[in-house]
Design a protein that fits this description.
By secondary structure, the chain is α/β, with parallel strands linked by helices. It is built from 27 helices and 26 strands.
Length: 742
């Protein structure tokens, strides 16, 4: 039943030709930001506590880049949300931001709103959906991922499509974990932080993004020196400090005819002496924002209470009970402290405000000779500080991240240790009691924000760096395939079964015989093999088992692809697989590690280095990855059956090889059933393909349980594959009962 697969050839443009095209204004930039609520008007600034600044940043970046003559199109990919608890705008597939910029909302995972920590199980679905989007609209010239989740997804897309990649981490996992772990030494507290914030996944995603990125855009020098430096893939040469811009259209000093805004009435109902100066803070309720510390400082300072009112703008809430648990807890703690210090009549905490109210709040505080404070434990961005400064309101801010550069550039306030109560009190008192200094800081903020933080300057520097990246990057290997593959198919069948060999197909002779008959009797179903074995070893076992000739064979742990009866190699895959691959240097580093024993030569191949591993004495997998990174070696590390370790190129693996096949041949993931039993099968089991894990699977695959489109069969070996075929009704009209795991 072997079916020949036609060999494809493609002509790809040179990097010089592409650069010439870009300079005519055709540059296409794809920005990715997945968490929070993103829309082009009346932006809610995200529901997650540390997303507000990032959401606004990426929207303004998209608009500014699209306005540049060098750029033809900017698309901002985010997540489609269909949820009665949020506005219907977030369900729109597309939303125009400007003439050449738009938001594209990709559906993946549950339809409802999810916190960013809940998105990790669905990233592979986003990757597959985005590939379909690129097939319809064309490949971008640059992919730019924002934050850890989009950073990982964007890096995977860039690796697969060989498109230059840019990363902006915003709030970094290692830094946040350090900050939140202060004073929490017991094991249970650390576990609770891990459960809540998914730090392990987040940090590994950031490492992947840093490893892939041609450029890392940061807001401040402190980010580079004290935050990114904590990562194994920290490369100073790739770091570009480009201060973020601020849209100053709305954030300007009060005009002569300015009148007290309506929101003042909402504050006044809290306050006994509403004409006092205002200590204003504006932040989502989150541990990192350190709002409780601010209330403690105010509650323990008679001087501050005598001089000023405290105004806490903590997002928008209709009903406190509807907020996420973490946000609800922070607000409850704030209310407790107000009660404990008997601050009634001195503290305002309005429950709602509109986006138009924000600049008016700054102007109101400025008119009353007040001060804006950001007491966050860590602040990578500092958007509210820039907005306040542009309006003429002096600032007191945490001595971390963005505020350090803002105050150094603008000279409009004071930095404080966010854990030092007396330092916070002293800074606030100085700002409120020194009128000449207040006036100087106010003027400096108005001028400095406009001089140092304009979006035009940001975009100019950004595009200059992109030009340099593109000039030194080859055109994507798959660029031509993107245009032609929509009309190409693996011949003669409309669906495909791909399965591992050892312990998946083998182990149950009766079930294997039934599976072989099923393949032979259904000409509309293609047959593929994905195995860690070398090609010659795999073909020997296929012949020994009496299997049909595969239409597709993916060997050497996802590093070699061949098609049809003649085993035609996939040249476009081979062209890219050796990227950054240094096998001898990897062997030099790992051969000396305890508990790692090179497998025999027949298990080694050009793009796969294989070890047997004794985990009782060997370094952990995390440590092995770290050892390679510290040696400057880029590779994937795959553990199988608890005793086999494969090292392969960063562009290899069953996840990327399967997506390459689907992209190249225009195959719908929903028409591909994949089955495996061990860790090296994990990549192909995730995403929009229909996954089947056989009953005799190894422990490594347990992490996939309850993932969407991954079915755990009760039966073992080939019987488990047959069970999965029945589960998805794969021979007839395909159904996907596990499409979404709520």
């Amino acid at each position: 039943m072997a079916r020949n697969v036609l060999k494809k050839t493609s002509q790809t443009e040179t990097s010089a030709a592409r650069l010439t095209r870009n300079k005519r204004g055709d540059l296409k930039i794809t920005l990715i930001s997945l968490h929070g609520l993103i829309r082009g008007h009346d932006c809610e600034l995200g529901r997650d506590a540390d997303t507000g600044g990032q959401v606004k940043y990426v929207l303004e970046l998209a608009r500014e880049l699209a306005a540049h003559s060098h750029v033809g199109e900017v698309e901002l990919l985010t997540r489609q949300i269909i949820d009665p608890k949020v506005d219907d705008d977030y369900a729109q597939v597309e939303e125009q931001l400007s003439e050449n910029a738009k938001i594209v909302r990709i559906p993946f995972g549950p339809k409802r709103y999810l916190r960013k920590e809940s998105l990790w199980p669905y990233l592979e679905l986003f990757i597959d959906q985005t590939l379909q989007h690129f097939r319809r609209t064309g490949l971008p010239d640059i992919i730019h991922g924002h934050y850890a989740d989009a950073g990982a997804a964007g890096a995977q897309l860039a690796r697969l499509l060989h498109i230059p990649y840019v990363f902006t981490g915003h709030s970094l996992g290692r830094v946040k974990r350090q900050r939140l772990s202060l004073g929490k030494e017991d094991h249970q507290a650390v576990e609770r932080l891990e459960s809540k914030y998914k730090f392990t996944s987040r940090i590994e995603a950031e490492e992947l993004a840093l490893e892939t990125a041609s450029m890392v855009v940061t807001s401040t020098n402190q980010e580079v020196q004290q935050q990114y430096e904590l990562y194994d893939h920290y490369q100073p040469a790739r770091m570009e400090v480009i201060p973020p811009g601020v849209d100053l259209t709305n954030f300007s000093p009060a005009a002569k005819d300015w009148t007290t805004p309506k929101i003042a009435a909402d504050l006044n109902c809290f306050l006994q002496e509403p004409d006092k100066p205002m200590i204003l803070t504006m932040a989502r309720p989150d541990e990192r924002k350190n709002l409780e510390m601010l209330v403690r400082v105010y509650g323990e300072s008679e001087q501050l209470q005598e001089l000023a009112n405290l105004v806490l703008v903590m997002g928008t809430r209709d009903d406190l009970r509807d907020l996420p648990k973490a946000q609800r807890r922070i607000i409850n703690h704030v209310l407790y402290l107000i009660d404990r210090y008997n601050l009634y009549g001195k503290v305002a905490y309005p429950k709602t405000h509109k986006p138009d109210d924000v600049p008016e709040l700054y102007r109101l505080a400025t008119s009353m000779k007040g001060v804006f404070i950001n007491p966050a434990l860590t602040e990578p961005f500092g958007l509210t500080l820039l907005e306040a400064g542009a309006t003429g309101l002096p600032i007191v801010a945490t001595n971390d991240g963005g505020p350090r550069d803002i105050i150094a550039n603008c000279k409009n306030g004071l930095l404080v240790d966010p854990l030092d109560k007396s330092a916070i009190e002293h800074a606030l008192l100085r700002t409120l009691t020194e009128p000449e200094q207040w006036a100087e800081w106010s003027d400096n903020g108005i001028k400095g924000t406009r001089e140092h933080y304009s979006w035009n300057n940001h975009a100019e520097r950004y595009l200059r760096d992109l030009d340099d990246i593109l000039e030194h990057s080859p055109a994507p290997v798959l660029a031509d395939l993107a245009e032609k593959s929509s009309t190409r198919r693996l011949p003669e069948f409309d669906r495909l079964i791909i399965t591992d060999l050892d312990n998946t197909l083998t182990g149950d002779d009766e079930a294997l015989k039934e599976f072989v008959e099923l393949i032979r009797e259904n000409d509309h179903i293609g047959f593929g093999i994905a195995t860690g074995r070398r090609l010659d070893s795999a073909m020997e076992l296929i012949k020994e088992l009496g299997l049909p000739q595969p239409d597709l064979i993916d060997t050497d742990a996802g590093t070699q692809l061949h098609y049809g009866e003649n085993l035609t190699p996939d040249l476009s895959w081979r062209k890219s697989i050796d990227y950054a691959w240094k096998p001898q240097q990897i062997r030099d580093v790992l051969d000396m590690q305890p508990g790692l024993y090179p497998q025999i030569e027949e298990h080694q191949s050009e793009f796969k280095i294989s070890y047997e591993i004794d985990t009782s004495v060997s370094p952990s997998i995390t440590t092995i990855k770290k050892i390679l990174r510290e040696a400057g070696l880029r590779a994937k590390v795959i553990m199988s059956l608890g005793m086999y370790l494969d090292i392969i190129p960063v562009r290899g693996g069953s996840d990327l090889s399967m997506r390459h096949v689907l992209w190249k041949w225009g195959f719908a993931p929903e028409h591909v059933l994949v089955s495996g039993d061990s860790g090296n099968d994990a990549g192909m089991l995730l995403g929009r393909t229909l996954g089947v894990v056989v009953g005799n699977h190894s422990e490594e695959l347990e992490r996939l349980r309850n993932r969407p489109r991954v079915y755990f069969a009760e039966a073992s070996h080939a019987a488990g594959i047959l069970e999965g075929i029945r589960y998805y009704n794969f021979l007839d009209k395909i159904t996907i009962p596990n499409d979404r795991i709520e």
